[in-house]
Amino acid sequence: MMNAIALGLLVPMLMTGAGGGAEDYIRIDRLSPRAVIAYWPGIDRRCSLTAVQSQRGLVIIDTEASPRVMAPIKARIEETFGRSDWAYVINTHAHDNHCSGNSLFKGATIVGHENLGADMQWLIDRQTEPDRKQRTIDHFTTILRDLHAALPQAARNPALARLIRSDLVFYGLHLQDLQEGYEVVKPTLVFADKHTIDLGDLTLELIFFGKGHSNCDILIYIPQERILVSGAIAYQRGHLPEIGEASQLEDVHRFIAVLDSLLADDVRIDHVIPGHSAPLTRAALPPIRDYYKKMLMEVEAARREGLTLDETTKRLTLRAYFPAFRDPPQGHYGYAGQERNIRNLWRILEQENTAGQSQG
Q: Is the dihedral of CA 337, 343, 344, 345 positive or negative?
C-alpha cells in the first residue's frame, strides 16, 4: 500500500524514459472529411474514439480512461477539425475507457442507453471506497513498474520501445487521475431501444444491442458516412462475441435481430469501428450474427439430446463449430469465453424451461 506523497514521487520516476508528452503518441486517422478515429497506441490497442463534425457541432463517441488521458486526445481532434464546439458525447457502454473523460466536454449532451448511468456507478465507487481505490492504484502502479522494467529490454526493437514509452505516459496520467480523483459524468439523454440524433448534414442512429458485454451496449450508425461504430460488439478475430451473466433469451434474440437489420441490403456500411482493434469492414458482421444463431441452435439441440453442460461444452469447440473465432491466450480477460458463453446460454434456456413448466 502506498500513500499519496510516495505515489506522487514514484509516478514521475516510473514515467522517466517515456521520451515525450502525450501529443507525441496520439494518433488521428481520417475516415473522411467529417469523421476521424482517435486513439493512443500501446502494447494493447486501447479505446478507438470516433469523432465527427457536423453543421450542429462536434460529436465524440467514447471518452477514454480518465480526464488526463482524454484531454490531449480532445485537443488533437479540435486541432484536426479546426473547431471546438462539442455538441454531443456518446458512450457505447460503461467500462472505464469508454466514458471516464466525459467531464471535459462542458455543455455537451451526454448520451447513452438507459442502463448506462447505473452501470457507471462503479467508477464512482472505486474512488470513494478506500480499499477499492487502493487496490486500483496498486494495480496500475504495478503496470507502470513492469513497463519501466521492460523498456531497457526493448532497446533493439524501436517499434516495441515506442509502444512501451507510449504506455508509460498513458498509465502515468491515468494513475494521477485515480489518485487525485476525477468527476464521473453520467448521461443526460438516455434511450431504451433506438434514438436518432439530427446534426443537420448528418444523422446518428443509436441502437441498443442487448445485455451481453455489458448491460448498456449500443452501436452507432452514421448512414451518410457509411460508418458503424460497434463499441464492444465487433472486434478482430481474437475477440469472441459475448453472452453475459445478465443476458436473457430476449437479449440473444435481440443480438441476432440487430445484426440482421444492419446487414439488410439497404444499409450501407463501409467502415466498422471496433472499441479496441483496428477498423473492420461490413464483412466482420455476418460471423458475429451467425455465431449467436448457431450457438442458440446447438445448445438447444444438445439439451434435447439429454447432454450435460460439460458434454455440451466439450462438443461446441471453436475449432469444430466456430472457426471464424478463436479464444485469446491464457491470461487475457477474454480467455475461455466460449465456455462462459455456453454456460450462460445453458442458464438462460434452463430458466426458460423452468418458467414454461411453472406456467403449464
A: positive
Q: Which amino acid is at 83?
A: R
Q: Report the b/e string of 152-183 with b at 16+ CB within 10 A.
A: eebeeeeeebbbbbbbbbbbbbbbbbbbeebe
pTM of the model: 0.92
Cα dihedral 292, 294, 295, 296 sign: positive
Strand runs labelled E in the chain = 27-32, 35-39, 49-54, 57-61, 86-90, 109-113, 189-191, 194-198, 203-208, 218-222, 227-231, 271-274
The fourth-level CATH superfamily of domain 24-121+185-241+260-283 is Ribonuclease Z/Hydroxyacylglutathione hydrolase-like (3.60.15.10)
Region 50-68 average pLDDT: 98
pLDDT in tens, 75-125: 999 999 999 999 999 999 999 999 999 999 999 999 999 999 999 999 999
